[in-house]
Every structure is written in structure tokens, then in C-alpha cells.
Design goal:
The protein is mainly α. The chain is built from 12 helices and 4 strands, in the order E-E-E-H-E-H-H-H-H-H-H-H-H-H-H-H. It has helices spanning about 30-35, 50-55, 65-70, 75-80, 100-110, 125-130, 135-145, 150-160, 175-185, 190-200, 205-210, 215-220, and strands at about 1-5, 10-15, 20, 45. The protein is flat and about 60 Å long.
């Protein structure tokens, strides 16, 4: 029998420009989708941690549209680049919250992408809008030109664009942690990713080296610049 763990809370959000998970109720549609996973491969059961009454009377029928809970910075800068300056009056398919809109505008302003009149700055704002990446990563790439570290920053940006470079094997958590420590840098995860990439190149792009260090070989191949 296949058993699926119950999921009562989910939804990612952006707080102070840092992606994090916050507590939010799921919808009836999400609950039914979770139950469907129990029978996807073979017959199974899904155990709920709430009452039927809660499901019927308190859960919303559908989840919050992705547009209303996502970071809007990329959408805002694209609209600005198209000449649509009145973002607050724009006819969104699903209107985002005012808080999400304000966070996006504040982020773009702090990056120097928008000026005091909420218009794209020149040239930084227009350059960031032309790069099909998250505005923070785009600004990081542009700033690297002045700091003389463009190759390293582009490598980090490439690794950030893939899901994960680490391979988790059941029963090998200790070995995985030890492998991560071999590449760890006090400066943070971004420099750690750069160390992994340099090690991958030094190994001759070896799949055996990746397997030994619990690194996703296919992800590293995709991240090559």
C-alpha cells in the first residue's frame, strides 16, 4: 500500500527579498490532488489531519492564483519596458495584492532599476529588462562587469537557474553532508556553488567524480557556460 503524507499547509512567498515558506491554508482542489497521489502508482490511502466539516465548510474551493502570490518584480519590469507605467491600474488577469505590488516596486527601486518616478532608469533599468532572468540576478551580472568577476558571477547565475546540483540518496545523508562540507565556503552558498563548478571542470567533467561527491552530473552539464 502506498501512503502519502498529508499536506495541510503550503505556499511559497517572498519576505524581505528572500524566498521562504509561509503558513497558509490549502484549498479543496489541492487536497483532492494530494489524495490522488496515493493511487498514482498502486492502491493507497491518504490520511487527513482535519475533519470533514473543516474540509466542507472552511476550505476554499480553489487555490490562490500563482500571480497573486508570486514575486512580481519580473512582471513589473517587463511591463515597464513595454511602456506601461501605470502598473497599479493595469488590467491583470488576476489582480495581485497591493502588498505584493509594493514589494516588487521597492525591490526594483533598491536595485536602481526604477527612479523616483517609478520609471526605468537608463541604462541600468533597460539593461536589466533585456536579460531574461530574475532582476536581482540580472543586476548582479551587470554589476560584475565593474568588479571584474563576470565569469564567476555568470557561472553562479547558471547554477542558480537549475533545480539542484546535489543528489540525495536514502540512507546516505551523512555522506552527503560531508560532501557539501568539502566545497563549503564561509562566504555562503553562492561561492560554494562556484567551488563545485570549479571542481567539476578540474575533474575533466567526470560523471564518476560527480557520483562520488553526490553531485547531479546532468545538472552540472546543463550549467556549463
Amino acid at each position: 500500500m502506498q501512503i502519502v503524507k498529508p499536506s495541510l499547509w503550503k505556499v511559497s512567498n517572498d519576505i524581505s527579498d528572500i524566498e521562504s515558506l509561509v503558513v497558509a491554508p490549502i484549498s479543496k482542489a489541492s487536497a483532492r490532488q494530494r489524495a490522488g497521489r496515493a493511487g498514482r502508482v498502486r492502491p493507497g490511502k491518504c490520511y487527513r489531519l482535519y475533519t470533514e466539516g473543516f474540509f466542507v465548510n472552511e476550505m476554499s474551493a480553489e487555490g490562490i492564483p500563482e500571480m497573486q502570490r508570486s514575486n512580481l518584480a519580473s512582471s513589473v519590469i517587463q511591463l515597464k519596458a513595454l511602456g506601461i507605467d501605470n502598473i497599479l491600474g493595469f488590467d491583470w488577469p488576476s489582480s495581485p495584492s497591493s502588498e505584493a505590488m509594493i514589494r516588487a516596486l521597492e525591490l526594483l527601486y533598491s536595485l536602481g532599476v526604477l527612479d523616483d518616478d517609478a520609471k526605468l532608469t537608463s541604462p541600468a533599468g533597460f539593461q536589466v529588462a533585456e536579460i531574461p532572468l530574475d532582476p536581482m540576478i540580472s543586476k548582479m551580472i551587470l554589476a560584475s562587469q565593474e568588479l571584474g568577476c563576470s565569469e564567476e558571477i555568470i557561472t553562479i547565475a547558471a547554477i542558480l537557474s537549475i533545480q539542484s546540483i546535489w543528489v540525495s540518496v536514502r540512507g546516505s545523508q551523512k555522506e552527503l553532508d560531508e560532501a557539501k562540507l568539502r566545497f563549503a565556503a564561509s562566504e555562503g552558498d553562492h561561492v560554494t556553488f562556484l567551488n563545485v563548478y570549479k571542481g567539476f571542470l578540474k575533474s575533466g567533467k567526470s560523471s564518476k567524480w560527480c557520483y562520488k561527491n553526490f553531485i547531479n552530473y546532468h545538472a552540472m552539464v546543463r550549467s556549463q557556460i
